[in-house]
Amino acid sequence: MSQTSSGGQVYGPGQVRGARHAVAVVFAVHGAVAGSFASRVPWVADHASVGAGQLGLALAMPALGASLAMPLAGRISHRLGARTSLRLLLAAWTLSLVLPGLAPNLLALCLALFVYGATSGMADVVMNALGVEVENRLDRSIMSGLHGMWSAGALLGSAGGTLAAHLDADGRLHFTVAAAVLTAVGLVACAWVLDIRAAVDEEPPPRFALPPRSALLIGAIGFCAVFAEGASLDWSAVYLRDVLGSSATLAAACTTGFTLTMALARFAGDPVVDRFGAVRTVRVSGALAALGGVLVVTAPHPALAMGGFALLGLGIAVVVPLCFAAAGRSGPNPSQAIAGVATITYTSGLVAPGAIGVLAETTSLVVSFALVTLLAFGVAGLAGVLRAGDRNPAGSAKSGTSGSSLPSEHPAG
After folding, report:
1. Nearest CA to 90 among 1, 189, 21, 176?
2. How confident is the model at residue 290 (pLDDT cuts 50, 70, 90)?
């Protein structure tokens, strides 16, 4: 059966499936930009002549830029439509990859990374909203797999950056080539996403607004999951080396294993969500993550701790995608809710590494990961918050297609 957007465009089942693949490519492109930049941070720091402390300040700018700019995404989507908005914002994000490589000093680097983060956050909101829209039309879970594509893109971008670093390529050249390729791929993919438009008489969303209460509750789950993710990514290798005395190679392998576990779990997550629903999936996921945290803080040797970090990755992998999906169904302004959840999760990713470091300095890394374990228990305990937005709450037979996920849009006809 064909489906109609508020702008009048009719989409058949094949076109919706094509839109799913297009959004998946968009997620991969977005992740590839992040991976490309992350792999060349040492070069960027050397080029801008900044030390560790100054680099830490600069690396806080993307989260700040994203947090301030994400509320604007809904208004842009209302004015231009989803497809045009995504095309412009994704291109702005891919092209912003060039900016950090051009920064000659700390101030310029901070400004470049602020713009980099702002464009990232706005594109993130629109692509997640479109992902929820496609999920609603297909009437089955796809958000976990879409975030898996982001992880795959990040790994691919990181691999390209590693190769560029191995060849001693100038970061400006690397970023320019990567930006050009990713912009081209992104523009092609955007041509196939759903073109959702607001009705003529629809009031535009506010330029800035506090996240709705539903977003705060859902965002609390995302905060716990992203805190555990950020802590594990940045500190798992340090934990194995300093607490358990492992080799540098084994410590690095732990971080790689954590990342791969998350990516694989996201790709495998959608059938699980379809079978059991978001609430039960997140409840079990939080329990697995908490078990992983317990293994980490009680591990007497590195192998057991590595197993704990793997369980942490497995447990938190699908939580954030399901938070975005729930936010997209939680109220009259879904993009505002998605932006609110995204802002909270970005904030968590910003504060987690520093909070772990401060707590480790005043107590120990073991105590730091005890906090991570408590937050994992929080994921399990708060899972019921996702019930209102659960598309398939008890793994029962699927109901009809839900409404549009973008702000100021009418539900699909």
Report:
1. 189
2. very high
pLDDT confidence bin for 349, thresholds 50/70/90 = confident
Whether residue 197 has pLDDT greater than 80: no
Q: Which amino acid is at 215?
A: A
Q: List all residues 6 or more positions away from 357 whose beta carbon is below 8 Å from its beta carbon.
A: 235
As a whole number of angstroms, the distance between CA 386 and CA 103 comes to: 42
* H helical segments located in 239-318: 248-298, 302-316
Q: Are 326 and 389 in contact (CB under 8 A)?
A: yes
Q: Which two tokens stand for residue 65?
A: 């830029």
Beta bridge partners, 3, equal: 11
Burial of 413 (C-beta count, 10 Å sphere; 0-12/13-18/19+): exposed
Q: What is the mean pLDDT of the chain?
A: 84
Helix, strand, coil percentages (3-state) for the chain, rounded to 5, are 75, 0, 20
Query: Do 346 and 121 meet the contact criterion of CB atoms below 8 Å apart?
Result: yes
Measuring CA to CA, which residue among 298, 290, 287 is closest to residue 239?
298
Closest alpha carbon to 215 in 30, 342, 67: 342
Helix axis angle for 248-298 and 213-238, nearest 10°, is 130
- Whether the predicted pLDDT of 299 surpasses 80: yes
Give pLDDT, residue 388.
59
> How far is residue 10 from each of residues 181, 321, 413, measured CA to CA in Å?
31, 27, 9
Residue with tokens 């019930």: 387
Dihedral sign of CA atoms 112, 114, 119, 121 in order: positive
Q: What is the pLDDT of residues 145-183, one digit of tens each?
A: 999 999 899 888 988 988 888 899 999 999 999 999 999
Strand partners, 4: 10
CB 199 within 8 A of CB 340: no
Residue type, 387: R
Q: What Rg value do the Cα atoms of the chain yield, rounded? A: 21
Least confident of 119-123, 150-154, 186-190: 150-154
